[in-house]
Structure formats: C-alpha cells, structure tokens
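Supplementary Methods, section 5.1.

A reviewer requested that the exact input to the structure prediction be made available. We therefore reproduce it here, unchanged from the version used in the analyses.
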Amino acid sequence: MRLGRNFTNLLYPDYLNEDNREKVLAGEMAVHDMDALVQVKEKADISGQIRAAEEMGVDHVELDGAVPNPYLEFTEKQKGEAKDAEASSDVTLSFHLPYTYVAECMCLCSGVHVRSSRARPTNCHGTSKAILEVCF
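The structure derived from this sequence is encoded token-by-token as follows.
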C-alpha cells in the first residue's frame, strides 16, 4: 500500500510572487483570488508535487484533473518531463479525473516502468484519453 496526497490548494504559497504572498498574509487577497492566480501553474508542476511528497515522506501523488486542467494542454516536452520526474523518484502518480468521468475516475500512471499489476487502460475517451497520454 502507498501513502499519498492530493496537493490541491496546498502548495499555492510556493507559486505566489512576494507581493501577492504579502497580500494574502495581510488579508488583502482572498483565498479564491490566490487560487485563480496560481492553480494551473501549481497543478502543471508535477515534479514540484513529487518533491513536496518526498519532503513530506509520502510515496504517492494524486494529480488533480478537475477544472482547470493543465494536463490537456501539455506539450510533448512537458509530458516527457513529467515521466522523467516520476521515473527518477520512488513516488508514484495517479490522476483524479472529474466526476463526470465516473467510470474512469482513477487511472494509474506507471510510465515506462510498471509498478503495479494493473494494465494500461485502453477504453478511455476524450479528456480521460488526453490525460493518460501524459503518463503513457
């Protein structure tokens, strides 16, 4: 069994510039405004989420695929960087897909190396299929 974490909304301060960080601390910026500024950037930083997991001592990260979803816009370079980050770590990844894709709500990412007996999902469509391309 792996102990993991979904970092949704938890790493935002790491992605704020100093001015905005001070505004949040002073109560001059609401949490939802902070969310709007950095959510996509935080979600797209898969290697940063892996580092955070390692620092916390957990060995799994559930990537948040809910809207806004940066994974659909990943370039081949970003996909490669995500695969490399996962491959060079003991931290495994999975996607939490939006509940509109209930039948496919969890898809295991195992990259090139297989860490599970689960096979690559083959019956995914649309958003689910695009997200899986990040891992396979």
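The helical segments are 18-25, 31-44, 46-56, 76-87, 126-132. These observations are discussed further in the main text.
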